[in-house]
Design a protein that fits this description.
Blueprint lengths: L1 E10 L3 H15 L5 E7 L4 H7 L5 H8 L3 E6 L14 H11 L4 E7 L12 H4 L3 E7 L25 H16 L4 E6 L5 H14 L6 E6 H10 L6 E4 L1 H15 L6 E5 L5 E4 L16 H14 L3 H16 L2 E2 L10 E2 L2 H13 L2
Helix pairs in contact: 1-10, 1-12, 6-7, 8-9, 10-11, 11-12
The structure holds nicotinamide-adenine-dinucleotide.
Amino acid sequence: MKKYKIAVIKGDGIGPEIIDEAKKVLDAAVLNADFGFSYSEYLMGGIAYDITKDPLPQETIEGCLNADAILFGAIGGDKWDNLPREKRPESGLLRLRKELNLYANYRPVKVYEELAEASALKSSVVEGVDLLVVRELTGGIYFGEPRVYDSKKSYNTMVYSKDEVKRIARDAFEAARVRRKKLCSVDKANVLEVSQFWRECVEEVSKDYPDVSLSHMYIDNAAMQLIKDPKQFDVILTSNLFGDILSDEASMISGSIGLLPSASIGGKVALFEPIHGSAPDIAGQGVANPLATIASASMMLRFALHQPEIADKIDKAIQIALKDGYRTKDIASFGAVEICSTTEMGSIVADIVSKM
Ligand SMILES: NC(=O)c1ccc[n+]([C@@H]2O[C@H](COP(=O)([O-])OP(=O)(O)OC[C@H]3O[C@@H](n4cnc5c(N)ncnc54)[C@H](O)[C@@H]3O)[C@@H](O)[C@H]2O)c1
């Protein structure tokens, strides 16, 4: 029987709790399939620093490169915040993205019908929202040089090359082409030269996609429009920094950051992770919502392992669990029949999927 090699990085905080549930659901989903998974765990983040003094040990990079896909929990926490920047868990994650050339980050935002009430916005505003943020992940201000921290003056550099912008723009146009054919590129071209350049590169790529309608929006307006009328968006294309912020904002449309998955693609091996962080404030309490990680596992099946039928089953099982009224604490007050712990939610979804 074919066994896909999955590199598993649990990381810090709630990472181990949510990954265990995603694995439970993955195993249940393939009970009657002609393939399975072989998991190998690798250290990364704060826990890796504690054990090896490196937030991204070489063994982890090699393990990831030898895998069919990577399932990632979350890294970071206060405990490691005062380390020198290159030793911090977040630096490990940035390095991993760079090492694996994961330049395209896909963050779909869909509102589950059952949870429209859970949004901080009116349900009439969020019902039916189905958008995709395509974020450039290995360039821009997070990687630009020079970068200097000094007690008198500090700075970072937002830099993009033509190849970097055109590469991510092409991916975003391709994504829009199989959706509703609308692409909105978000920048700050009224102030930043790098954004003006970004806009020109996107325009150039658009010539190859006459079937996709392209618009441009400034980041400040986009932040506002996402709250005012999120349904206007199909695919949003943006840079590393703007995408980081916009996709967290977009998560609130869905009701909880604990619901949204992501895929980071580009190199030989793709990485799948929830969009949230390690949530140290709730770690170890058994209250974290595992659905974002379970949905990330579904994206892994769809985009890396090319098993869309099993991915569909997992997506459906999540929907059924929510329809039946199962809720973790973060979404507890909206149509809840039963409040579940992290492991209970994982077991419920696994049980539903195993019977499909
Ligand atoms: N990819 C990653 O691993 C990643 C991403 C973002 C932040 N971080 C790191 O995570 C740490 C905490 O960052 P933060 O607090 O800004 O963001 P966070 O996403 O960890 O948490 C923000 C808020 O959302 C809640 N939350 C997050 N995930 C949840 C879930 N699954 N279920 C229920 N509630 C959930 C948290 O309890 C918290 O109140 C920091 O060290 C940060 O650098 C890591």
